[in-house]
Amino acid sequence: MTGWRARMAPYALLAPMLALVAVFVYLPILANIRFSFYRWSSLSPTWVFVGLANYRRLFADPLFWSSLGNNAIYAVASLAVQVACGLVLAAVLESTLLPRRLSGCFRVALFIPSVLPITAIGLLWQLLYQPAFGLVNAALETVGLGQFVHAWLGEESTALLSVVAVSQWQWTGYIAVLFVVAIRGIPRELYESAEIDGAGLIRQFFSITVPSVRQTTFVLVMITIFGAVKVFDIVWIMTGGGPNNASQTLGTYMYRSAFQTDAVGYGATIAVLMFALSSVFGLLNLWLQRRGE
Amino acid sequence: MRRRDFATGALAAASAAVLPRGAAQAQEKVTLSFLHKWPEPTYMAFFQKVVQEYEAAHPDISIKMDAVADDPYKAKIRVVMASGNIPDIYFSWSGEYAHQFVRAGRALDITAALQAPEWQGRWSAAMLEPFRFDGKLYGVPMNQSAAVFAYNRAIFARVGVTPPQNWSELLAVCEKLKAAGVTPIALGTQAPWTAAHYIGDLNAKLVPAATRAADYTLAAPEDKLFTDPGYTEALTRFQELLTKGYFNRSPNAMTMAMVRGSFASGREGMILTEIVTLDPMRSAKIGTDGLGMFPIPPIEDGRGDQKAVTGAPDGFLISSATQHPKQALDFLNVLTSRANGALYTKQTGRPSATIGAVTTDNASAEVLQGVALLQGASAMSLWLDTVIENRIAAVYLAGAQALMGGTATPAQVMENVRKTALEVKREGV
């Protein structure tokens, strides 16, 4: 190929994909930012320009702050359980503690919840959490922990954490499998020489495994935080954001505003906030990643 | 040459045979788009039959029907409205819900059309009222429903109680059931609209009708908005049923499907439910004759309307932008005829709104009782979550969940309702 065509070739090949991304991702994001400056009901053809009024209302809205708090709880729990415990699980699965075949079985068993349809998971756990005949309370009573029995999804104090727990059950195995892939890339010799030097399994984990999977950790932390900011489906199915807004997250509040209480502009404002939050965390993560290199 | 001439001639002859001629050439195919919220097989079977019969009788009209379920409908209709591709005929709940479409200029004023002879005697005034705004009619009712108490006859007989005639008797019946070890009332408020039945009815019975109407439509002056003590009393009476142990444990953790199933398997004494659910709840356990119903009892010293029935019709609106209003109205006329109304009730179990459509041939004694209740009502108190503005309804329903969870008092809930109502009123919705 001649010089000009050779230089243009990569752009030409990228162009269709870029066009699709521009139309279906970036354009809606810009349109959404525009929507947030208007007050409109999806039923009415008239839009009223309100400038920053939606944003002012949002920052004064106690339900927004409580939803944001719930998302924060979601993020912290997901990082602690999915990422941290996921890494530990992966390390155990790949260690010499388990025979190969058993390790494979456990990997599959841990991974299965992440491929189940979300509606099935929601309904399944609704039944498990049922106060009168659900398995969770029955199990607690059987092992003598009857004092911890609750109406899990029905009490404001336990509703959010019950849903958070289901998310961890669903995704920890998936994260663990991704970590397994990363751990497999660590040269065996590092572990062997550490063993020779007298390092125990825990020391090997912190000194070899954790630093070696840093890149994967950064990516998974980012994905987990994005997931926590966006979470909608599992909450909507299990509690609808209730009882009394106890499990309301930004995602469910946004959906409710736009599609149930007919305040599409306000819903768009919440969406802009979610986008901003995700962007901030994403950039922070990238920066930390770059710094570490 | 000759082959081409022959081909051209053949083509001309063939097209002449195919193309319509004369008067038929002037007829255009009219397509009506029709959106409703009943994709379930029993309902679709009915609608498809009516559509097919109509298309056969009117070859120039073709009906494009689409249906999504109850909850997704609320989102779908908004998307459809925003896209501008508004169906010629679309489903709507009555009251404030339908009023939204009217205010946005999306519904056709059919007051004059419904004066025509083919519509007379179709519905009672009570059925049409919830579709009337500013004196004009916009909707065509399809079915009717009311909130009533269903009770387990066997349990009542065993414990020795009869359907209560007023609220104090209701409390006494609950006390007796509780003493006999039976959960008096089944309630599931995980989806809080179920609480709306109770609160809406209690509001109607405890708050004077004029005050309630002014508050619900936000027409009341700011300092009076939702200040009537009847509202707080309604929430107190609702919460009382929980604190006295008359509901099952943790209503917030139960879905309505779970409690209906529980009642149908003979566990609880009563359940507040809609007429349309009465027949499906007759199960092997409770038996075909094991279920009875009674209206929500009046409150002896209530300042509201004791004869108001909590219920509503729902039906269809016609798009104000439709190109074919006459055809749309004609189709709706056929859809809501007495014959089709009877078929609808028979196939789906949901009482048609059409006068004379619900008979002993297609409905059980309890459903007929419910329909008679609606016919004799002084007024219909519509579902609370469709009769007040969305944001206020959201706060009211969240408050009901808080009452059931014991995390708020009736006064606190009403304070939140008042605050939100003021905000919405000031925004000038």
Which helices and strands appear, and what pairs or packs with what?
The complex is a heterodimer of chains A (293) and B (429).
Chain A: H1 3-35, E1 38-39, E2 48-49, H2 53-59, H3 62-94, H4 100-111, H5 118-128, H6 135-142, H7 159-184, H8 188-196, H9 201-212, H10 214-230, H11 233-238, H12 250-260, H13 264-292
Helix pairs in contact in A: 1-13, 3-7, 3-10, 4-7, 10-13, 12-13
Chain B: H1 2-18, E1 30-36, H2 41-57, E2 61-67, H3 70-83, E3 89-93, H4 96-103, H5 125-128, E4 132-133, E5 136-137, E6 139-152, H6 153-159, H7 167-179, E7 185-186, H8 193-206, H9 209-216, H10 229-243, H11 256-264, E8 270-274, E9 291-295, E10 308-318, H12 325-335, H13 338-348, H14 365-375, E11 379-381, H15 384-387, H16 390-405, H17 410-427
Parallel strand pairs in B: 1-2, 1-3, 7-8, 10-11
Antiparallel strand pairs in B: 3-10, 4-5, 6-8, 6-9, 6-10
Helix content of chain B: 40-55%
Based on secondary structure, the structural category of chain B is: alpha/beta
CATH class of the largest domain in chain B: Alpha Beta
Query: Quick check: average pLDDT of chain A?
Result: 91
Total strands of chain B: the figure is 11
- Per the CATH scheme, the topology name of the largest domain in chain B is D-Maltodextrin-Binding Protein, domain 2
Strand content of chain A: under 5%
Distance between the termini of chain A: 37 Å
**Unreliable residue runs of chain B:** 20-26
CATH level-1 class of chain A: Mainly Alpha
Assembly type: heterodimer
